[in-house]
C-alpha cells in the first residue's frame, strides 16, 4: 500500500509522525492532508533512508535547490560540492537535473551525498541517451523514456518531475497564440520538438497510466512539470499556461485515484499582480494539490540578480499559499551557478518562504523573528548571530567592520543612541 | 515664490518640465501633482545645479542610497567612492547621514560629487556638535539645531529629513505600550533621550514654524522622519507608529499651507500582510503625501541578506503606491556597508521599484521587460546585456562560465533545447 492509500485508510505512518514532529502539528493533521492530497510527503515509503519532508497546506513553505551536469564544463565533484553547500544553507530538497555527462553516476552520487529527498526529471536523461544513441533527441524511444523513469524511481528518488500535461493540442494552440517566448522550459521545449517531429502525442500524457504504475510501485511523488511555463512577464497567465494547468487538474485526480501522491509545478515569470491569482487558480484547478513554483520572477530585467527577483515572487507566492519554492540563482538566464550562487539562491528562497509563512500566519513562524528581535533589544550579539538565517554570513558581515566590542554594533560611533535611550528611557534596547 | 506656490498658481516651471520629460508625462500632470502635494520635486529651486527628481503619484518609483561618516573607521574618501558607485548603480538620490567626524566637510564633498539630489538629517550633526561641545548630546541647544538645519539648507541639500512628529505624548505612550523594541531610529532615540532628559517637548514639533521658515526660504523639500519606526515585526503598525503618522498628517497640511513641499518617511520592519495596509494608511492620514519607505523588511531574521529582505517589502510597497524606497544593504543591523554592498543595495531597491511599477501599471514600465524578453527570444546576447538592470554584472555573471559562443548560453550542453524548438516549431527563440 502506498502512503496515500494508508492515509486514506485512516492510518498514521512513521513518515507522517516524523513530518508532524518537524512541523509542530498533530500527526492526524498530516494524515488528513495526505489523504486529501493537500500534503505530499517526499522521501517517504520505500525510498532512501532520509528524513521525510512534508510539503503542503498548513506546513512550513519548503525550498528546493537544483544541481546537475550541464555541458562540458560540469563535473560531478563540483555538483556534489553544491549539494553540500545547498544543504548547509538549509535547502529542504535537492533536484538533480543533469542533462549531459554520466547522468547515472551523478544521480547515484546525489543520492549517496544528499541527506534530503532528491527529485529528478528523467526526461532529460532519456533525451540525452537518445541523442547519444541516435544522434538526436527527437529519436527518443518511448520505451527508453519509461525505462529511465523506472530507473530513477528504483534508485530511490523522492519525487519525479514529468511534463505529463503538455498535450499536442496545447502545443498547437501555443504555436497559434503568439506567445512572445513560446517555450522556455527545457523539458517542455524538447518534448514539443519530439512531438512535432514525430507527429505523436506526448507519451507522458498518452501513457499516464504507465507513469502511475511506476510511481505507485515505488511510492514516489509525482511533480507535474509545466512545459508551458511562461518565460517572460508578457506571457504570464496566458491560455497556454492555464490550458496546461487544467490538464494537471485531471492528472491530479487520476493520480490520487491510483494512490499516487502528486504536486504541481508552476512559473516562472509573473508580475506581482498575477502571483496570488496564479496560486489561487492552481489550488482551484488542481484540487488543492501542493504548488511548487519556480521563482516566480517578477521582472525580466534583473539579469545577474535573479535570486533577489525570485525572492520577491517567492515571498508573495508563499503568502498566497504556494507550498514549495524552487530556488533561482543569480546565474539564471546566463549560466550555471557556482557554489556561492547556490548558497545565496537557497538563502534567498528561504527568506521568501519564511516571510510568506509569517504573513499567512503559520503557527510559530513569527516566533523566530520575535526571538531574534529580543536578542537585538538585549544587545545579545551571540544570540543574534545564532538566530540569523545564515549565522556564518551574519558573523562575516558583522566582523568585516571593526566594532566597538561585543556591547555595540559600531553603527553609531561615539554617540551611541542605545546608551542615550537606556539611560533616559530606562530600558535596555538595541538601536542602530 | 516656492515651487509649490508656483504650481498652485497654475504655472509650470523648468523643474516640472524636466521631470515631465524624464517620466514621459505631461508637464501639467507634474504641476498638478506638485500643487496637490502628491508629487514633490527634489533638487529643484534655488538648490544645486542637479537634474531635479520627481517623487510621487503617477511617477516612476525612486530609490535612495545612504552614505555618511559613522565612527572612527569612516573616511570621507570611502564615502565619496560609495556615492559614485551608488550613482553608477542608478540611485535617484543620495542621503548623507553622517553622525561623526567632519560632517561639514563630508556634506560639502557629497554636494560636490553627487549628480543627484542630496538629502540630510541635520539632527545628527547637531547632536554630534553638542556632544563634542558639552560632552553629551542631551545638552544640545535648540538654537544650534536650527542653525544646523539652516546650514544644510543653505549648502544646497534637496531634502531635509526631520523628526518633527515625535511628540512627548507619543514617547510617553510608547514607554507604556510595551513595544518589543521601543526606539530603533537613531534620530528618534536621541531625540527622545533629549526630550526625557530635559523634560521638554520635541523642538522640531514645538517650533515647526521655524522649520517651515527655513524650508520655505531655501525651497527645500521636507521629509518627515519617523522616530517611531518599528524595528521588528512584532512592533509593526502599532499605536506608536500610527500616532506619529497622524501627527505627520497635521504637519503635511501645515507645510503645504506654507508653500513647503513635504513627504513622509515610513518603516522599517513590516510583515508582508501589513505592507499595503501601511501605505494606504499613510496616503489617507497624510493627505496623499509621497511615502518614502525604508525597506521595509518583511522578516527580522535575514541578517547579512537584508537587501533581499528589503527588496521583497519594497516591491510590495511600490505596488501599493509607495513612491520612494530607501535602500537597505546586506550590512544592515550589523555594520556599515562597503562599496559592493552599496551597489547591491541600490540594485535590489531598483528591482523592487521596477517590479512595483510594472504591477501598478505605470505606463511604459513593462516595455523594458518586453524589450529584454524580445532580445532573449532572438538570442541577441549583446542586447540582453545592454537592457539588463546592471549590464556590468550581467556580463560578469555570463562570462564566468565559458559558453558555447555568442549563439548560446551554455545552459543546455550539447542538446540545446532552442535548436530543437527552432528546428521543429519553426520559430527562433531562446530556451534555457
Automatic annotation (TrEMBL), chains A, B:
Domain of life per record: Bacteria
Q: Does the keyword Transferase apply?
A: yes
* TM annotation in the entry: none
Family matches, as InterPro entries: ThiC/Bza_core_dom (IPR038521), ThiC/BzaA/B (IPR002817)
State its Enzyme Commission number(s).
Answer: 4.1.99.17
One GO molecular-function entry: metal ion binding
Named cofactor requirement(s): [4Fe-4S] cluster
Q: Which UniProt keywords apply?
A: 4Fe-4S, Iron, Iron-sulfur, Lyase, Metal-binding, S-adenosyl-L-methionine, Transferase, Zinc
A Gene Ontology BP annotation from the UniProt entry: thiamine biosynthetic process
Q: What GO cellular-component annotations does this UniProt entry give?
A: cytosol
Q: Which NCBIfam families match?
A: PRK13352.1 (NF009895), thiC (TIGR00190)
The identity of this protein, by name, is Phosphomethylpyrimidine synthase
- Species source reads Thermacetogenium phaeum (strain ATCC BAA-254 / DSM 26808 / PB)
Q: What is the lineage of its organism?
A: Bacteria, Bacillati, Bacillota, Clostridia, Thermoanaerobacterales
Amino acid at each position: 500500500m502506498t502512503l496515500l492509500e494508508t492515509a486514506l485508510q485512516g492510518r498514521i505512518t512513521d513518515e507522517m509522525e516524523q513530518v508532524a514532529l518537524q512541523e509542530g502539528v498533530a500527526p492526524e493533521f498530516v494524515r488528513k492532508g495526505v489523504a486529501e492530497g493537500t500534503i505530499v510527503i517526499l522521501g517517504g515509503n520505500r525510498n532512501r533512508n532520509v528524513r521525510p519532508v512534508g510539503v503542503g497546506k498548513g506546513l512550513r513553505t519548503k525550498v528546493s535547490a537544483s544541481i546537475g551536469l550541464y555541458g562540458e564544463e560540469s563535473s560531478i565533484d563540483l555538483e556534489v560540492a553544491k549539494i553540500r553547500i545547498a544543504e548547509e544553507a538549509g535547502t529542504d530538497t535537492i533536484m538533480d537535473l543533469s542533462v549531459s555527462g554520466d547522468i547515472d553516476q551523478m544521480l547515484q552520487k546525489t543520492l549517496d551525498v544528499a541527506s534530503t529527498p532528491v527529485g529528478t526529471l528523467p526526461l532529460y536523461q532519456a533525451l540525452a541517451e537518445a541523442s547519444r544513441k541516435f544522434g538526436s533527441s527527437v529519436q527518443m524511444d518511448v520505451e527508453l523514456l519509461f525505462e529511465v523513469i523506472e530507473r530513477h524511481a528504483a534508485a530511490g528518488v523522492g519525487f519525479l518531475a514529468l511534463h505529463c500535461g503538455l498535450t499536442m493540442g496545447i502545443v498547437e494552440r501555443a504555436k497559434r497564440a503568439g506567445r512572445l517566448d513560446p517555450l522556455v522550459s527545457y523539458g517542455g521545449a524538447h518534448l514539443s520538438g519530439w512531438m512535432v517531429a514525430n507527429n505523436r502525442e506526448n507519451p507522458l500524457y498518452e501513457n499516464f497510466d504507465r507513469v502511475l504504475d511506476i510511481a505507485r510501485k515505488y511510492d514516489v511523488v509525482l511533480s507535474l512539470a509545466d512545459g508551458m511555463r511562461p518565460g517572460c512577464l508578457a506571457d504570464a497567465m496566458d491560455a497556454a499556461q492555464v490550458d496546461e494547468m487544467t490538464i494537471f487538474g485531471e492528472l491530479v485526480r487520476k493520480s490520487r485515484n491510483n494512490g499516487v501522491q502528486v504536486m504541481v509545478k508552476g512559473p516562472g515569470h509573473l508580475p506581482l499582480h498575477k502571483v496570488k491569482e496564479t496560486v489561487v487558480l492552481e489550488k482551484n484547478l488542481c484540487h488543492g494539490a501542493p504548488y511548487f513554483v519556480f521563482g516566480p520572477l517578477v521582472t525580466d530585467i534583473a539579469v545577474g540578480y535573479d535570486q533577489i527577483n525570485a525572492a520577491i515572487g517567492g515571498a508573495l507566492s508563499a503568502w498566497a499559499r504556494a507550498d514549495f519554492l524552487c530556488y533561482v540563482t543569480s546565474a539564471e538566464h546566463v549560466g550555471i551557478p557556482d557554489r556561492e550562487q547556490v548558497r545565496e539562491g537557497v538563502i534567498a528562497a528561504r527568506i521568501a518562504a519564511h516571510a510568506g509563512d509569517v504573513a499567512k500566519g503559520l503557527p510559530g513562524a513569527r516566533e523566530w523573528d520575535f526571538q531574534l528581535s529580543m536578542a537585538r533589544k538585549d544587545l545579545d550579539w551571540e544570540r543574534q548571530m545564532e538566530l540569523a538565517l545564515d549565522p556564518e554570513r551574519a558573523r562575516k558581515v558583522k566582523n568585516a567592520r571593526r566594532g566597538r566590542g561585543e556591547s555595540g554594533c559600531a553603527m553609531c560611533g561615539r554617540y551611541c543612541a542605545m546608551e542615550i535611550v537606556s539611560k533616559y528611557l530606562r530600558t535596555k534596547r538595541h538601536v542602530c
